[in-house]
């Protein structure tokens, strides 16, 4: 049974103190239809978290602002860049366009839990090692999202390992620095390592 | 993002009850269109109804051979379903040409049908837009309209319909199943999306309180099928022009043909003139080009999008050529 972690602070606006801290947060309800927060349980990186969240809170903001999982990044906030990519039930998704309240019962994995979730408890996920080995980043802001998509598509039997297929499958993750060549090299390398010589 | 209430429903009759019949409520499934547009303040729901727990996640073959797709089937799942890959490859190709891996994992079949235009003036609440705010005018008519439509436009709106999936469905032939407070009804897929005309704010034939529950694809047409999408970059980009083509041959002649277009029209566009020009004719490049010309007879170009007439014709000719090659294979 996974431990249940109860979050009593930093949960939006369930207490006056927290409200003052989070008044500017995108998760905060504003406007005339101030809707009540609700208590939900999210399973993130194998641990259950009891949270108080607003109906309009997106998963990305809850991960970062309530669970302090800052590895997942906010880029465009509109599903156009992929920096916020996490896994929900094993599939890569854009966490900026999902309501946190709709993810109860789902298995959510962020970059912080990627290695452990895949059984690499003491080290890196092969995708992380490959990104290091291939210098697959410049500023690093998109890197977590790139790695989450890469880890998901490597496990997807319907996505072939040729360059065209991998480029298409990775194309939802934008790198403003343009490190694509090394990113693709890293994905191919990690894929080869994880799937053997197929 | 503005605040809204959130309600989760467990049964279809709960989702479509009479109390939903007002404009302040929106259904959410994948959320990829709705939350994007709520963040931009283009859509302003007071209440969002989560339909993802409804039993609409199956793909099943009906006794008459048609394929019934639950509205909650994801774009990824639909594109990679073995029956779709085998019998409706044009639809699979269309789906996989749209958006990205992550978005396709989220986006639902019903939600893709309800996708809103990518017109930048529609997406900017500070700009006049007849679709978003009727009567304010169309900023695209004299604005930057490189990405806008050349078919099905009106003096009030020239925004394109953005979906690839819908173009594949128009070519394959489909029926939408709608559930509403007054019961169930079916609408031919081609009749569902509306031309802008005098009322660009009316985009589809969905009555208040109604929900798309299924898409039923016609019995497989066989033949050779191909979806060709032309765009500014090779992936993760909307179409400038796209064509879904299905060609059946009788010897060297085209016995049956379906042509649908994306990126050039205000709704998922069935190019019946192209079909009529080609049906019964020899499957030659010359005839493909003649069919392509026929599709754009009524096209209207604006200041920056005249190239779409040329590009659209080339998309048709190439898609027909490749679909024909597959029909021969």
Structure description:
The complex is a heterodimer of chains A (198) and B (329). Chain A is of the alpha/beta class and 198 residues long. Chain A folds into two domains: 4-112, Ubiquitin-like (UB roll), CATH 3.10.20; 124-195, Orthogonal Bundle (DNA polymerase, domain 1), CATH 1.10.150. Chain A is 31% helix and 14% strand. Chain A has helices at residues 16-22, 59-65, 114-117, 126-133, 143-154, 163-170, 180-195; strands at 4-6, 38-44, 47-53, 85-88, 91-94, 107-109. A six-stranded mixed beta sheet of chain A has the order 1-3-2-6-4-5, covered by helices on one side. In chain A, a hairpin with a 2-residue loop joins strand 4 and strand 5 (91-94). The longest helix of chain A is centred in the last third of the chain and has 16 residues, at 180-195. Residues 8-34 of chain A have low confidence and may be disordered. Chain B has 329 residues and is α+β, with helices and mostly antiparallel strands. Among the domains of chain B are: 5-50; 224-328, Enolase-like, domain 1, CATH 3.30.390.50. Chain B contains twelve helices and twelve strands. Chain B has helices at residues 12-15, 34-39, 75-79, 82-87, 89-96, 101-106, 109-113, 165-172, 189-192, 272-278, 285-295, 307-328, and strands at 5-8, 25-28, 47-50, 59-61, 67-70, 174-180, 183-188, 211-217, 224-230, 241-250, 253-262, 269-270. In chain B, strands 4-5-8-6-7 form a five-stranded antiparallel beta sheet. A four-stranded antiparallel beta sheet of chain B has the order 9-10-11-12, sandwiched between helices. The radius of gyration of chain B is 19 Å and the shape is globular. Chain B starts with a strand and ends with a helix. Chain A binds chain B through residues 26, 29-31, 33-35, 38, 54-56, 58, 77-79, 82, 85, 91-94, 96-99, 101-102, 149, 152-153, 158-159, 167-173, and chain B through 1-6, 8, 28, 30-32, 35-36, 38-40, 46, 48, 50, 52, 76, 80, 99-103, 105-106, 234-236.
């Amino acid at each position: 049974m996974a431990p249940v972690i109860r979050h009593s602070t930093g949960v939006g606006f369930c207490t006056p103190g927290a409200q003052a801290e989070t008044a500017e947060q995108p998760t905060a309800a504003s406007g005339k239809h101030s809707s009540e927060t609700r208590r939900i349980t999210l399973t993130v990186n194998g641990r259950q978290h009891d949270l108080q969240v607003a109906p309009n809170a997106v998963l990305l903001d809850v991960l970062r602002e309530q669970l302090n999982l800052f590895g997942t990044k906010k880029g465009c906030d509109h599903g156009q860049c992929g920096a916020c990519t996490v896994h929900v039930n094993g599939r890569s998704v854009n966490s900026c366009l999902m309501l946190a309240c709709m993810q109860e019962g789902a298995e959510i994995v962020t970059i912080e839990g990627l290695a452990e979730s895949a059984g690499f408890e003491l080290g890196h996920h092969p995708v992380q090692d490959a990104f290091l080995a291939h210098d697959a980043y410049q500023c690093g802001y998109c890197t977590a999202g790139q790695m989450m998509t890469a880890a998901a598509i490597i496990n997807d039997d319907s996505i072939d390992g040729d360059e065209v297929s991998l480029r298409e499958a990775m194309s939802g993750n934008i790198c403003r620095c343009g490190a694509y060549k090394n990113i693709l090299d890293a994905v191919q390398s990690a894929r080869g390592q994880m799937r053997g010589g197929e | 993002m503005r605040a809204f209430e959130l309600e989760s429903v467990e049964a279809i009759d709960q989702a479509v009850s009479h109390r939903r019949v007002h404009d302040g409520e929106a259904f959410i499934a994948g959320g990829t269109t709705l939350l994007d547009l709520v963040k931009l303040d283009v859509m302003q729901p007071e209440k969002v109804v989560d339909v993802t727990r409804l039993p609409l996640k199956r793909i099943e073959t009906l006794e008459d051979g048609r394929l019934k797709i639950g509205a909650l089937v994801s774009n990824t799942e639909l594109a990679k379903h073995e029956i779709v890959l085998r019998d409706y490859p044009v639809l699979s190709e269309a789906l996989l040409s749209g958006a990205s891996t992550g978005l396709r994992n989220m986006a639902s079949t019903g939600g893709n049908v309800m996708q809103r235009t990518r017109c930048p003036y529609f997406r900017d609440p500070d700009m006049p837009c007849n679709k978003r705010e009727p009567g304010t005018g169309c900023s695209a008519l004299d604005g930057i309209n490189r990405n806008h439509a050349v078919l099905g436009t009106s003096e009030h709106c020239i925004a394109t319909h953005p979906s690839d999936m819908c173009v594949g469905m128009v070519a394959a032939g489909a029926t939408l199943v709608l559930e509403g407070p007054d019961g169930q009804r079916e609408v031919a897929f081609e009749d569902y999306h509306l031309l802008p005309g005098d009322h660009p704010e009316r985009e589809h034939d969905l009555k208040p309180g109604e929900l798309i529950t299924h898409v039923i694809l016609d019995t497989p047409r066989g033949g050779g099928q191909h979806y060709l999408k032309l765009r500014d970059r090779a992936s993760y980009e909307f179409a400038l022009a796209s064509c879904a083509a299905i060609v059946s041959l009788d010897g060297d002649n085209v016995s049956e043909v379906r042509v649908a277009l994306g990126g050039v029209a205000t709704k998922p566009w069935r190019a019946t003139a192209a079909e009529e020009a080609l049906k019964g004719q020899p499957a030659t490049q010359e005839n493909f080009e003649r069919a392509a010309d026929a599709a754009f007879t009524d096209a209207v170009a604006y200041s920056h999008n005249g190239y779409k007439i040329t590009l659209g014709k080339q998309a048709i000719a190439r898609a027909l050529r490749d679909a024909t090659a597959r029909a021969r294979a």
